[in-house]
Design goal:
- This protein is an alpha+beta fold.
- It contains 10 helices and 7 strands.
- A 5-stranded mixed sheet has the order 2-4-5-7-6, covered by helices on one side. Strands 1-3 form a two-stranded antiparallel sheet.
- β6 and β7 form a beta hairpin.
- The protein is elongated.
- Bound molecules: adenosine-5'-diphosphate.
- The site of adenosine-5'-diphosphate (ADP) has 22 residues, from α8 and α10.
Length: about 350
């Protein structure tokens, strides 16, 4: 909004005064002037009637024209808004409203209406993007399962081939199952239909337990861990946090180069507990960082089949639910650091 427009903006009350005051002052001046002239020059024949007529016209001006002007300027925009709201209710999210007047309250209502329609339109876009992403993610493993199942039906294939195709079918089935699990989990988190179970436990032990569970993967890749974990008692959502650490650790392993190093630290700061995981992997570009928490977003395509882009969306949602914060700093080709802070 330009400064010029801002300056011209006035409240509805001031606007009514702006119309009424000149009307009343004008009326008083004209009546006073007429009376003054009549007193000064006497009352010729018919002057009284003329004067009464004049006063009536002036009163009409105040009684009818002013309220009409006020109503016109205030009600017309509201009628426009009402029409737009009806369109919106019918599902037309592209409805546009525009207010060019100067009444501050109306300007604010129109601005809020515009913001609301924009928000609704973006939610709608997200929703349809979500549906098309889900369909796409389902389609890929389903097509694979169909293809390999068809190949297995062929009696002439070798046993080794049959075994390989069966493996691939199993891989795709697991992918589908993890996809469904992840979508369900995210939906429950978003709708807050799962209540976090609050326990008191040792955070460092939870992290070590996850490291052990994922050992076969990082061992195969020759990854080395550098651990700096303080012994920290924590009261909070144990299952939720399990998910957070597990996602961040498995990502750090997944996006590290073979024989890479990952540093894990857990510290008690003044008013919070801080978990940090740093890898020397492929890193994330600035552009990708902006979308990293979006559902199904995968910045890097060579590991596409190992995940579904829902992990960080879940992590972000969980951290948000437990009123913590998560930050990422990353340099492409150098590595990434994810920091999660939990309130005490
Ligand atoms: P995915 O299941 O694909 O790993 P996530 O939601 O966990 O999905 O992560 C989203 C994307 O963020 C990943 O596809 C990857 O491109 C990027 N990413 C996440 N963690 C890291 C990391 N430690 N290093 C580099 N890229 C990462």
């Amino acid at each position: 909004m330009s400064e010029k427009l801002m300056k011209r903006e006035i409240s509805a009350f001031a606007y009514c005064l702006k119309i009424l005051v000149p009307c009343i002052l004008g009326t008083i001046l004209l009546m006073g002037g007429t009376i003054f002239v009549l007193i000064k020059f006497g009352f010729p024949d018919g002057a009284m009637e003329a004067n009464i007529g004049f006063v009536l016209i002036l009163l009409l001006n105040i009684e009818i024209v002013c309220p009409f002007l006020i109503v016109y300027k205030l009600i017309r925009p509201l009628q426009q808004l009402n029409k737009a709201a009806k369109e919106l209710a019918k599902g037309n999210l592209n409805v546009k409203v525009d207010y060019t007047g100067q009444i501050a309250e109306l300007k604010m209502i129109f601005l809020n209406f515009q913001t609301m329609t924009k928000e609704l339109a973006s939610i709608e876009t997200l929703r349809s993007d979500f549906v098309s992403n889900v369909s796409h993610e389902f389609k890929t493993p389903l097509t694979a399962i169909e293809g390999y199942a068809t190949l297995i039906q062929n009696q002439d294939i070798l046993d080794s081939e049959r075994e390989e195709y069966t493996e691939r079918i199993l891989f795709s089935t697991k992918r589908l199952s993890s996809l469904v699990e992840n979508i369900l989990m995210l939906s429950k988190l978003e709708n807050q239909t799962i209540k976090p179970e609050i326990n008191t436990y040792r955070l460092d032990e939870q992290i070590l337990q996850i490291l052990l569970q994922q050992e076969s993967v990082w061992n195969d890749k020759g990854i080395e861990f550098d651990l700096d974990l303080d012994e920290i008692d924590y009261t909070g959502a144990e299952h939720f946090l399990y998910h957070v650490w597990s996602n961040l650790i498995s990502n750090a392993v997944k996006y590290s180069h073979p024989k890479g190093k990952i540093r894990l630290s857990l510290k008690q700061d003044a008013h919070q507990k801080r978990f940090q995981i740093t890898d020397q992997g492929i890193g994330i570009s600035e552009e990708n960082l902006r979308h990293i928490f979006e559902k199904f977003y995968q910045a890097e395509t060579s590991h596409k089949s190992e995940g579904n882009g829902l992990g960080l969306a879940q992590v972000n949602k969980i951290v948000d639910l437990i009123e913590g914060t998560i930050t990422i700093s990353s340099v492409e080709g150098v590595g990434s650091t994810f920091t999660v802070s939990l309130p005490d």
